[in-house]
Each structure stands twice: as C-alpha cells, then as structure tokens.
Amino acid sequence: MAANNSDASGVIDSAKQTATQVAGQVKDQAGQVVEQVKGQATARADQQRETLASGFQSVAQAFHGLGTDLESREQSPVGQYAAQLGHAVGEQVENLANYLQSRDVRQVVRDLEDFARRSPAVFLGGAFLVGLAATRFLKSSRPAPDFTSNIPDPNRALPPANPEFSQRPEVWQRGATA
Fold first, then answer.
1. pTM for this one?
2. 86: buried, middle or exposed (CB in 10 Å: 19+, 13-18, 0-12)?
3. What angle do CA 143, 146, 150 make, to 5 degrees?
4. Is 60:66 a contact under the CB 8 Å cutoff?
5. What CA–CA distance (Å, rounded) separates 93 from 86?
6. Is 178 helix (H, G, I), strand (E, B) or coil?
7. pLDDT tens digit string along 1-42?
8. What is the chain's alpha carbon radius of gyration, rounded to the nearest angstrom?
C-alpha cells in the first residue's frame, strides 16, 4: 500500500510540475501577444498622429492665406483685424501641428492627462467642442437619405373608411364645420 501511495504522490507531483510549466508557457505567450498588439496599436496611433499633424499644417496654411488675402484686399479696420486674427489662428494651429509632429503618442497622451488634471473644466469643455465638431463632420459626410423608399405603394392603398362619406360631399363639409 505504501508503494501505491508513493506512486500516486509521484504522479500528482509530476502533474503539478507539468501544469505549472504549461501555465508558465501560456502566460509567456499571452504576454507576447499583448506586447505585439500594443506595438501595432502604437504604430497605428502614430500614423494617425502624423496624418492629423499634416492636416493641421494644411489648416494653418489656409488661415495664413486668408490673413494675407484680407491684408491685400481690405483696408478697413475690421478687415485688418480679421487679417490679424487669421494670422494668429494660423500660428496657433501651426504650433499644434508642430507639437504633434515632435511627440510620440505616449507623450501626447501623458501631456493630455497632465492638462486634464491641471484644468479639468477647460479639458471637458474642449472635449465637448471636439465632440460637437466630430458629430457635425460625421453627419455631413454620411450619404443623403433616400426619400423614395418612404413613398407609399399605390397598389397597397387603403379603401375609404366609410363609403357614404366618400360619395356625398355635403357630409364632409358638414363634418368639417361641425
């Protein structure tokens, strides 16, 4: 009987070691997959950051062009003020584009978190405005609805509710005035 107990405990120990080894391998493989996914997500986020930065560069150039155009055309004080405003907005958008180009995604996220801690109201207000702008953009970029699908099928028209009502005009006139 003692031999059977030692054999059983040996099998149990062996099974425990095998389970521990398998669990360690699974954990290592899961860690590798997680790191790979993180790397891919970071690479895509960096591509989007670069695309966003180049888009902001284009917007900044448009504001600078607007300012230059207004300076050359408008001589009124309001026109000159609008030209200065165009250049100032262009400068700020250009600064944002340069900031995005000079940082990686992790730095941008870290800076956003710091800003949100320092100025939560401004951060939430900005997030709200960005959400509104994104909503407007998405609504304007979706295809126009197809109104022809809402036209009723004439073959499925309902018969008149009361035949007497539809045949005697004086009944509907009385019903309308009563």
1. 0.55
2. buried
3. 150
4. no
5. 11
6. coil
7. 555 666 777 788 888 889 898 889 888 898 898 999 988 888
8. 35
* SS3 at position 92: helix
For the chain, which residues make up each domain, given as ranges? 105-140
Handedness of CA 7, 9, 10, 16 (dihedral sign): positive
Which residue type sits at 78? V
Compute CA distances 88 → 124, 133, 159, whole Å.
24, 21, 67
Q: Is the dihedral of CA 42, 48, 49, 51 positive or negative?
A: positive
Least confident of 65-74, 83-92, 158-167: 158-167
CA atoms of 120 and 132, how far apart (whole Å): 18
- For the record, the structure tokens of 146 come out as 């197809």
CB atoms within 10 A of CB 124: 11
Amino acid at 143: P
Angle between helices 105-118 and 2-73 (to 10 degrees): 80
How many residues are present in the chain? 178
